[in-house]
Write a structure and sequence with these properties.
The protein has a single domain, classed as Alpha-Beta Barrel (TIM Barrel), CATH 3.20.20. The chain has helices at residues 54-62, 75-85, 111-120, 136-148, 162-171, 188-192, 198-205, 221-230, 279-286, 309-325, 331-337, 345-350, and strands spanning 9-12, 32-34, 37-39, 43-45, 66-67, 104-106, 125-129, 153-159, 175-178, 211-215, 234-237, 252-257, 266-274, 299-303, 339-342. By secondary structure, it is α/β, with parallel strands linked by helices. The strands form four sheets. An eight-stranded parallel sheet has the order 5-4-11-10-9-8-7-6. It has a three-stranded antiparallel sheet with strand order 12-13-14. It has a two-stranded antiparallel ribbon with strand order 1-15. 32% of the residues lie in helices and 19% in strands. Bound molecules: guanosine-5'-monophosphate. Residues 46, 48, 131, 158, 179, 181, 183-186, 188, 215-218, 236-239, 275-278, 296-297 line the site of guanosine-5'-monophosphate.
Length: 359
């Protein structure tokens, strides 16, 4: 069976009933309901230690999305992080006095202990996040949380096909994270051969009636629109936010072109970005990487990008414009109204800016 990635398809426009092609905020909206929260942007930041700490979580709420705090720290540090992320103190000028909820993450090993500690300080949104979500310990942890408090909102993953998604939904998950192997710093497919190209993975999981989060492989606003079309209710991004001011970690600086005189040396500013299954992350978190394991992620340097606001604005601009291309009044409409064609590598190349190649 053939599976497709975002680059293998293109969306086909449909009649737009709205007066101009311009997004009309009165008739169109990008809201998404998520566990009692109304989000104005269907965007979540990845629970990675180089993407979402306190500042990113607060920033994501500020722009109408939601931050998923990472879990690669002690339970005490996680509690501290959640408390700061959800506190009422203002962090940005004009930060809205709104719900400052953040999602917290749980693994399966000490998942229940972490759950109780975070629940105690008020957390109600939990993301059980392991590399292969279609597995018994995840099902068990969902059930344990739901038995403790039926109203706790549980996101579980990751899966990449409908049997896995169906399993998590049956166990009581309120939302499912889709994506095995598409991530920008992920090497699961290279190391294990497993994973499903993301467009098809989302489409297949859509057969299950549950809130779907397309997690990984979104490199452009266009990919975000394709993910929503494929059936995602929201997207999760790591790489696109990496290197922004709001991510954890210091901006570093290195020479990229050295000359005899320091004045002529070109330098760049960068931040570290790493997969949570990379050797570097495992060494930091577990003390060292277990010898029977292979790293399924990599660590890279990304050029410092400045404020994350520009990244979110670009994605939201693409989503709004995409909605007008298919006459969608809301995000769900994209799925209903648009259509897609499969394209060749030539079609994909044609669709990228290529001005100088044609001279
Ligand atoms: P991105 O937006 O960078 O393409 O993808 C981010 C997603 O990659 C994360 O939300 C997470 O699901 C996934 N991810 C993060 N670290 C790793 C890793 O080390 N290995 C794998 N397989 N996936 C990872």
């Amino acid at each position: 069976m053939k599976a497709l990635s975002f680059d293998d398809i293109s969306l086909v426009p449909r009649y737009n009933n709205i007066a101009s092609r311009k997004f009309d905020g009165d008739k169109q909206h990008t809201n998404v309901e998520f566990g009692g929260l109304t989000l104005s942007a269907p965007i979540f930041s990845s629970n990675m230690d180089t993407v979402t700490g306190v500042e990113m979580a607060r920033f994501m709420r500020h722009v109408g999305g939601l931050g998923f705090l990472h879990r690669f720290c002690s339970i005490e540090d996680n509690v501290d992080m959640y408390t700061k992320a959800s506190s009422n103190e203002r962090m940005f000028p004009n930060e809205r006095p709104m719900n400052r909820e953040a999602v917290v993450s749980l693994g399966v090993n000490e998942g229940l202990d972490r759950f109780h500690a975070l629940y105690e300080v008020g957390a109600r949104y939990f993301c059980i996040d392991i590399a292969h979500g279609h597995s018994r310990p995840v099902g068990t942890l969902i059930q344990q949380i739901k038995e403790f408090d039926e109203a706790a909102f549980v996101i579980a993953g990751n899966v990449c096909e409908s049997m896995g998604a169906g399993y998590l939904a049956d166990k009581g998950a309120d939302a499912i994270k889709v994506g095995i192997g598409p991530g920008s710093v992920c090497s699961t497919r290279v190391k294990t051969g497993f994973g499903v190209p993301q467009f098809s993975a989302i489409k297949d999981c859509r057969r299950v009636n549950c809130f779907l989060i397309a997690d990984g492989g979104i490199r452009t606003p266009g990919d975000a629109v394709k993910a929503l079309y494929a059936g995602a209710d929201a997207i999760m991004i790591g790489g696109m936010l990496s290197g922004t001011d709001e991510t954890p970690g210091e901006i570093q600086d290195e020479p990229i072109w050295e000359t005899a005189s320091p004045a002529g040396t070109l330098r760049r500013k960068y931040k570290m970005f790493r997969g949570m299954a990379s050797k570097e992350a495992q060494d930091d978190f577990m003390g060292e990487m277990r010898e029977w394991k292979t790293a399924e992620g990599v660590e890279i340097k990304v050029t410092a990008k400045g404020p994350a606001g520009a990244v979110i604005a670009d994605i939201m601009g693409g989503i709004r414009s995409g909605m007008t291309y298919c006459g969608a009044n809301n995000l769900r409409d994209i799925r209903e109204r648009a259509d897609h064609v499969e394209i060749t590598p030539n079609g994909a190349a044609e669709g990228r800016p290529h001005g100088k190649d044609r001279l």
